[in-house]
Write a structure and sequence with these properties.
By secondary structure, this protein is an all-alpha fold. It folds into two domains: about 40 residues; about 35 residues, no CATH class. The protein is about 70% helix and about 0% strand. The protein is globular. The two termini are about 20 Å apart.
Length: about 80
């Protein structure tokens, strides 16, 4: 999962490198710092998204979460030998 997450992070950082709003920058960096801390172990498995954070997401962010979910499912299926 880390490889998939790392690729996603690289893309997100490229897309957000020109943002000027300090509140967006702080929120973005805080969330990715939390991600980095959690991905170091398996404690994140089975964890649910905070409903308050989901409520604040834009339609584009919800779409990105859906794409990430689909990529994780595909990765699991391929890793388990199911195609």
């Amino acid at each position: 999962m880390r490889v998939l997450g790392d690729e996603y992070i690289k893309t997100e950082f490229r897309l957000h490198r020109n943002i000027d709003n300090p509140a967006h920058l702080i929120g973005f960096l805080t969330e990715w710092q939390l991600y980095a801390q959690k991905i170091e172990g398996d404690a994140w498995k089975g964890e649910k998204l905070d409903p308050a954070k989901v409520e604040k997401m834009s339609d584009q962010q919800i779409g990105q979460m859906y794409e990430l979910m689909q990529a994780i499912k595909k990765s699991r299926e391929e890793g388990d030998g199911h195609n």
